[in-house]
Design goal:
heterodimer; A: mainly alpha; 2 domains; 15 helices; B: alpha/beta; Rossmann fold; seven-stranded mixed beta sheet; 7 helices; nucleotide-binding (chain B); Rab_GTPases_membrane_traffic (chain B)
């Protein structure tokens, strides 16, 4: 499939302007590098501290690998050799990036890569690209997730004020609990695989924003959240509403709406300071043929104002 | 009118325990009556709802919050705990380590839930795999007795004692409610009165809370 050819570019394994020969060279070098990572991990048992680290990591990985996408043909059946590959890649990733180690959710993100790439070393490096270089992956720390949610709240206020107002008047409503899994697993459990992976590709392309996944989140709320506001549903019922919609939503409608939301966002004359950074990596493509929006400061505390480069610029 | 949407109370329960002890399977067995061998790891939060009868004529809607064994966002877990009136502490009877970790789950839950009162139930899972058992019934019972909480062993696969587990904790909470040791309070979602009793005196705390609000208008807070 074409995905097998394209994903290594989207996941930063090859530069977009590389030649065929260069790509073969990169693959070769990366293969050797991967073998080194594995060898280093296998000798780590000599050091008691490292041995303990890998022992713990392996225990969790083993539990998750056998229950990730097991209905998918690529992972189906007892003693499926692809499960061993998945485990190897996750272990080696923990060795390569011990600060990240392994956290639940990673196996879910690796599984589609493995089914598309179908090669251990290539899949490993694509996974590294996914984890380390894509914003759309929320690394499993409180502050990164909090940052995503902060952006999401501000975008929601801007793009869908009625829904925002509804959440704001509920206790814990602005925690947006129902959207956590969307962000953590990149919609993988919300849409059938083919549609979810289209969303992944759309996000990886960094077209006009680095946070397209947040536009997808807003889009889901816009398309499927009307009842919530109309029926004045509480925090719990909102979660129940969206959980029951999982795998029953139309990915193509949601994507279309997300694109139109992004377009609307681009046309804004002014954006709040907190959203200024959501298109940095997308580069000059953003706003290149249009006006550059004015940024206004919405910081509330003195501490925030001090750090904000737009401090003093009011709406 | 008795229908599936009418109930007297709503109890919010949280299910915690190590990864793969069978939290999601227990909930699925109870709420949907199905068992799947390898359910996907829980990420974020999931929740299920089922109505049980705690005594003839008294229906309670159980709101069951499933958590990830390896929860990463402490700030969020705190919110789940705070609003729970009951905690199911789960361990796997075929995995001794998961049993040794129950103490820390219990301590964390206790620390997060206070000042509210909460009911705990210790649940051992997977008793259909008797030959692989690592934690004896006596050990589980001793732990529960020591901490003065209830105890039950279950199998989600054979749906053994699954119903009983949830009815047990629901009854215990209901008894404490009728004894006045747990109250319906506004601003706390652990226990709520259902729509069925909207006209009975049980909903009074909510009405009072609503009546209080207009007074705020005269104050500087708005």
């Amino acid at each position: 499939s074409v995905a097998k050819e394209v994903w290594p570019f989207l996941l930063h394994l090859y530069p977009f302007d590389s030649t065929f020969d260069q790509r073969e060279q990169i693959r070769h070098n990366k293969f050797l590098h991967y073998q080194k990572i594995r060898a280093r991990r296998e000798t780590a048992v000599d050091d008691p501290e490292q041995a303990q680290f890998f022992h713990d990591v392996e225990a969790i990985i083993e539990k998750d690998v056998v229950r990730t996408d097991r209905s998918h043909p690529y992972f189906k059946g007892d003693d499926n050799p692809n499960l061993r590959v998945m485990k190897e890649i996750l272990l080696n990733y923990a060795a390569y990036c011990p600060t990240m180690g392994y956290t639940q959710g990673m196996s879910d993100l690796l599984a589609p890569i493995l089914t598309i790439i179908q090669h251990e070393s290539d899949a490993f490096w694509c996974f590294v690209g996914l984890m380390n270089r894509t914003i759309f992956i929320s690394t499993p720390t409180d502050d990164v997730m909090e940052k995503q949610l902060r952006y999401l709240r501000e975008l929601l206020l801007l793009m869908s004020p009625a829904f925002y107002e509804h959440c704001a008047k509920l206790s814990d409503g602005l925690d947006l609990l129902f959207a956590h899994r969307w962000i953590l697993l990149c919609f993988k459990r919300e849409f059938p695989e083919r549609e979810a992976l289209r969303m992944w590709e759309a996000c990886w392309s960094h077209y006009q924003t680095d946070y397209f996944h947040l536009f997808i989140c807003i889009s889901i709320m816009a398309v499927y959240g009307e009842d919530i506001v109309q029926q004045n549903l509480g925090t719990d019922d909102m979660l129940l509403h969206f959980n029951s919609l999982a795998m029953h939503m139309s990915g193509s409608i949601v994507l279309k709406k997300a694109r139109s939301l992004l377009y609307k966002f681009r046309l804004l004359q002014r954006i709040p300071c907190c959203l200024h950074d959501i298109s940095v990596l997308a580069g000059p493509g953003n706003w290149d043929s249009h006006h550059v929006p004015q940024v206004y400061c919405i910081c509330k505390t003195d501490q925030e104002k001090e750090r904000c480069p737009f401090s003093g610029i009011c709406m | 009118m008795d229908n599936m949407y009418s109930y007297d109370y709503q109890f919010r329960l949280i299910v915690v325990g190590d990864s793969t002890v069978g939290k999601s399977s227990l909930l699925r067995s109870f709420c949907d009556g199905v068992f799947s061998q390898d359910p996907d790891p829980t990420v974020g939060v999931d929740f299920n709802v089922r109505i049980v009868e705690v005594k003839p004529g008294v229906k309670v809607k159980l709101q069951l919050w499933d958590t990830a064994g390896q929860e990463r966002f402490r700030s969020i877990t705190r919110a789940y705990y705070r609003n729970s009136v009951g905690v199911l502490l789960i361990y796997d009877t075929t995995n001794y380590v998961s049993f040794t970790h129950v103490t820390s789950w219990l301590n964390e839950a206790r620390a997060q839930i206070q000042p509210y009162h909460s009911v705990f139930l210790l649940v051992g899972t997977k008793i259909d795999r008797e030959s692989e058992r690592q934690v004896t019934t006596e050990e589980g019972k001793a732990f529960a007795d020591f901490h003065n909480i209830s105890f039950i062993e279950t199998s989600s696969k054979s749906s053994l004692y699954v119903q009983e587990a949830f009815t047990m904790i629901a009854r215990e909470i209901y008894d404490m409610l009728t004894e006045g040791r747990i109250h319906v309070q506004s601003g706390w979602d652990g226990v709520k009165t259902g729509p069925k009793s909207a006209n009975s005196n049980q909903s009074q705390p909510i009405e009072i809370a609503q009546n209080v609000q207009p007074r705020r208008n005269g104050c500087c807070s708005s």
